[in-house]
Amino acid sequence: MELNTIKSAEGARKPRRRVGRGIGSGLGKTAGRGHKGQKSRSGGYHKVGFEGGQMPLQRRLPKRGFKSQNLKFNGEVSLAALEKLGAAEVDLLTLKQAGLVAEIVKNVKVIKSGELKRAVKLTGIGATAGAKAAIEAAGGSLA
């Protein structure tokens, strides 16, 4: 096989539609646009979402809320999960390898859910006020 002998499959490349080229072409006179109306005229069309003057759907529906796209980069870990993990020093990489947070996560916060009995040293990880108190009570620290 040579590069100059390669051809498209049969029927893969249809000829260009030539409109307004006489009655025999099948697309003469109105050129496939039908009779009258805005869409039949040259330059006559409307913007996306236009509903003929009726109040468009995006304006009829009520505005409601906002969800930041940055939330997908935030993760949370419970005290119970830290207890189960059993590591003395915990950082973001440790949590990702253990599967406690997603790979995409950049910021992690420990929340007070469950109990922590062993001392854990957290580096580069935030904690809620309750979780911080529980970690320090167990002899751990936050850095």
Describe this structure in words.
This protein has about 140 residues and is of the alpha/beta class. The chain is about 20% helix and about 15% strand. A three-stranded parallel β-sheet has the order 1-3-5. A three-stranded parallel β-sheet has the order 2-4-6. The radius of gyration is 32 Å and the shape is elongated. The termini are far apart.
Topology of this structure?
Elements: H1 57-60, E1 74-78, H2 79-85, E2 89-90, H3 92-98, E3 107-111, E4 121-122, E5 126-127, H4 129-137, E6 141-142
Parallel strand pairs: 1-3, 2-4, 3-5, 4-6
Instruction: Count helical runs.
Output: 4
Distance from first to last alpha carbon: 65 Å
Helix content: 10-25%
Mean pLDDT value: 93
Number of strands: 6
Strand content: 5-15%
> Based on CA inertia axes, which overall geometry fits?
elongated
The radius of gyration computed from the alpha-carbon positions, rounded to a whole number of angstroms, is: 32 Å
